[in-house]
Amino acid sequence: MKVQRYGDDGKWEVFFYYKDYTGKRKQKHKRGFRTKKEAIAWSEEFKVQQAQNLDMTFGSFVDLYLEDMGKRIRENTLRSKKYILDLKILPYFKKRKIAEITAADIRMWQNDISKNGYSQTYLKTINNQLAAIFNYAVRYYNLRGNPCSQAGPMGKSNADEMEVWSIEEFNLFLEAVENKPLSYYAFLTLFWTGLRVGELLALTVADFNAGARTLNISKSLQRIDGKDIINPPKTEKGKRVVALSENLVLHLQEYIEKMYGMKDKDRLFPVTKSYLEHEMARGIKESGVKKIRLHDLRHSHASVLISRLGAQPKLVADRLGHEKIQTTLDTYSHLFPNQNMELADMLDDLDSGSSNDDDGEEDTEDAGNT
C-alpha cells in the first residue's frame, strides 16, 4: 500500500492491490482524503467489500447492493431506494458492521423513526427497504438471519388509510376540469381503467382500439432528469389488454377528434405526471371534493369494481396488472365482502335443503356394509 499527499491542498491518495471475489489481483487508486488515516481506513474497508466478507460495514454492503440492483431495476425505482437509504437508514447503520446489527438495534431504529410523524404506509415502506438489504445479505452473502424479521414490522399497509372517490365525487371533480380537454379525458381514463399514471402517459394513439374496445398496455413512462424514459411495465402481468366501457370508447374517440392531427405513434396524453397533479389539485379546489392523490384514482377504480360490481380478486388483479393475486387481496381486503359469512350462509342453505328432502322414512343400515 502506498499513501501520499498530492496537489497544493494537502489532500491524500492511496494506491493498493486487492483480490476481487474471483480471486483475481487488481490495483486500486483513490484520492481526495483529508487525512492519511481516512485513506488507509477506506482502503481496508474496500478490500473487505471486494472479498465479499460480511465483516464489512453496513454502508459498504449497501454500495454492493445498489450496484447489483442498479442492473436489475428501473432507474426511478433505484433512486427511490437511494433516497430512503440516504435519509432514513444509513445515518443510523452506515458505520456498523452488518453482521453485528441485531433485532434490538432494529427496534431502537424503528422507535426513533416512528417519532417523526410519518404516515403508517411510509413507515412500512422505510422498514421494507431495510428488510430488503438484510434479505439480500441472507440470500447471497450467507448472513445467518434477517434481524428485521426478528424485530417485527413497522407501519401498516395502505388499506387502512386508502382514500378513494365514489363515482359521484369523481363526476363533481370532472366538471371542474372540463374546461381543459386533455386533463378531462386523462382523468376519465384513469378513473375508469385503473391504469398506473406511467402507463397512461406512455399510451399512444395506436394503443387504443375502438373496434375491440381495448387499450393495449405494453409500456410505462417516467420523467427522469427532465427526460421522458419509456420502460416496459412494472411486471410481466403489467403487459395486458384492458377492456373499455362503450362510454369510455366514445369519450376517447371524441378526444382524438378534438386533438386534430394525432398520429398512431403520438402519445395520447403528452403531458407529465406533475401536470396532472397540478390539474388534480385545481379540480379538487374548485369542486370541493375531498383531497386524494393522483394514484388514488387507481384505487378508486378498484373500489368501484369490488364494491359496486362485486368483481372477484382474480379479475381485479388481471385488470390492474398485479403480478400476484395476493397483492390485490392485501391492498383491497377491506373492500371484499365477508367471505366467511358467505360460506356460512351457503352451508345454511345446504342444511335447509337436506332437511326439506327428508321423506320421513327410517334409514336402515346394513351391518354387513358399514
In short:
By secondary structure, the chain is mainly alpha-helical. It has 15 helices and eight strands.
Characterization of the model:
This protein has 370 residues and is mostly helical. Helix content is 51%, strand content 12%. It folds into 3 domains: 1-51; 56-156, Orthogonal Bundle (DNA polymerase, domain 1); 167-332, hpI Integrase, Chain A (Orthogonal Bundle). The chain has 15 helices and 8 strands. Strands 1-2-3 form a 3-stranded antiparallel β-sheet, with helices on one face. Strand 4 and strand 5 (214-217) form a beta hairpin. Helix 8 packs antiparallel against helix 10 (246-258) and helix 13 crosses helix 14 (325-332). It is globular, with a radius of gyration of 29 Å. Mean pLDDT is 86; it is low at 354-370.
